[in-house]
Amino acid sequence: MADTTSRRRAPAMSTEQRRAMIVAAALPLVAEHGAAVTTSQIAQAAGIGEGTVFRAFADKDELLDACLTEAMNPSHVLRELTSISLDEPLADRLTQAAEALHAHLGRMGTVIGALHGTGHRRGRGLGERQTADERPPSGGREASTKATHEAIVELIEPDRAALRLEPEKVASVFLGMLFTRPRSAFGGAEPTSEELVDILLHGAFGRPEGPA
Asked: pLDDT tens across 43-100, in order?
């Protein structure tokens, strides 16, 4: 007969963990349906009962606010930036950084656009019941921008001696190019991350050919 005393139940989730799990399940649905998503759909995606959603969130608006906060949370992309190996060539480091930041901006824009387009506006949920993990760094957007700039400077720093400008200035130019990345609506194809980095490091003129 099995010794049931040796069995251990999985530890119960804290309220913060449950909220984070529900938000993670809800985000793809919010990106697709905006505010039209139902709590039933979210509960099904999370593998929980609908009542559990309302034990973690006061109402649907608070859940949508939490999804919006999570989409705007820079912590994830900052972790990606700090995980890029400094042993790789500078062009590869910056290309990976550009891809990570571009993906973050895309996810954020999709969620914000979906919620805005379906009539959701930030409500009382934001800032009232956010956990430490849900809140953006102190100072909001300014602190997020500074942290991102510092992460890019760290990626550039190993090549300081070979650069014409300080890594801090190169990082500012890099982020300026990335955040004003032209879209195809302006005519022509959107430049790739590799092309943007190549222009940053080598300019727009063709490289002179070497001796035959």
From this structure: 999 999 999 999 999 999 999 999 999 999 999 999 999 999 999 999 999 999 999 9
Neighbours of 27 (CB within 10 A): 20
What does 80-130 look like in DSSP terms, one character per residue?
HHHTS-TTS-HHHHHHHHHHHHHHHHHHHHHHHHHHHHTT----TTTTTS-
CATH 1.10.357.10 fits 15-202, yes or no: yes
Provide the pLDDT for residue 195: 93
Between the CA of residue 189 and those of 11, 37, 67, 182, what are the distances in Å? 51, 34, 32, 9
One-letter identity of residue 52:
T
